[in-house]
Amino acid sequence: MTHLAADNTLSRIIQMVEEAQNQRSPSQRMVDQFAHYYTPSVVVVAALVATIPPLFFGAPFLDTAIGHGWLYRALTMLVIACPCALVISCTPVTVISSITAAARRGVLIKGGAYLEALGTIKAVAFDKTGTLTEGRPVVMEVRSVDCETGELCALCDDVLALAAAVESRSSHPLAQAVVDEAQSRQLLSRYSTAKEVENLTGMGIKGSIDGRSVVVGSHGMFDKQFVHSAELCDLVTSAESNGNTTMMLHDGERVRGYIAVADKVRESSATVVSDLNTLHLQTIMLTGDNPKVAQAVGEKVGVTDVRSSLLPDDKVEAVRGLLESGAVAMVGDGINDTPALATASVGIAMGGAGSAQAMETADIVLMGDDLRQLPFVIKLARFARSLIMQNVVLSIAMKLIFLTAAVFGGVTMWAAIFADVGMSLLVTLNGMRPLRKKSKEKA
Questions:
Q1: Which of 32, 127, 305, 370 is the catalytic position?
Q2: Which of 23, 174, 415, 434 could form an S-S bond across to 101 if both were Cys, CB 3.0 to 4.6 Å?
Q3: Do 309 and 285 form a contact (C-beta atoms < 8 A)?
Q4: CB atoms < 10 A from the CB of 187, how many?
């Protein structure tokens, strides 16, 4: 299958960077709206300052030997009141500097709006597979219901081969693990690739093989839809209690067995979650895995809450529930995570191993697939918000001081120019501090 040049990863990254530069943050929109009314108001006030004292109080309109006239004072006010420093105080300097600092660490932020939103989050929700775990699961056990020895046998190989014929049409990491194991045992050619494949979102997959409807799915789904023995159920439960994810197989006539898969937790996950907890953020793991597997992984990484057996719609509802307590960031990597990514205040995708759909939907992409950059970018967002507030307060305070002095004739035109240009330079330099900010974490 071929694609247009515009559809490749580099082109998408360039497009996302252009969109990021065009995205205006909420602070910028607020200041732009303020300046829309502020500038004409200042002009009107300056005109009144220049005309009312000379017309009604006999004050000098032009400069005299004893001091500046009211026209000079009004012109000085106009110079001081120029909104340049106020506009610069919000964007583009602070936001673009922060986005650039993040990009240097392999984090693509698609706009100032998402940068500011990230600085306000109260909770971070994680997908499990491919996010907190490496996303490269391996098959740990294959068991056929007909196996009498409990060891790997030809009957067990047949279960694996049949499952691989269906899973080969899926891009899910668990499916890839099954296919890789079947390939290593030279079983891929035993059955033809499944046709009429249907993804059972959050539950499994089914397809037609030689006229049979073969289903590979979760233990929970099989408990509801397919009759199987209590002995098999106990074996599956035992595998899950050891932290394995299980997939059961129905060959169109009966349940044939199960495959147990384990996905290694990322080495950085526990440290990242600990750092987020230190930042007073609630950390929640949302997964479609069964409660036992989910709880085992949750305890390893140290999240504050674990929610399991979730379909994509359930993850959306979970995020909506978290939004009631404040802004929420959702971190995921797969196509099943895209609804939750879109629902969250800020969607964050794992760029290295993430799906194209997740990257397109997310507001922030960890391009290096490095979860360690998450605490850094949250601290960066908070720092950017504090800089914006500092610059806004500083700009308004200095303008009020100099405007008051100008009305009473205490500011010369040169001083007014210095104040305006100086303030613009000051907020610009302050806004560039994210470029010099060093994270305590190693890149």
A1: 127
A2: 434
A3: no
A4: 20
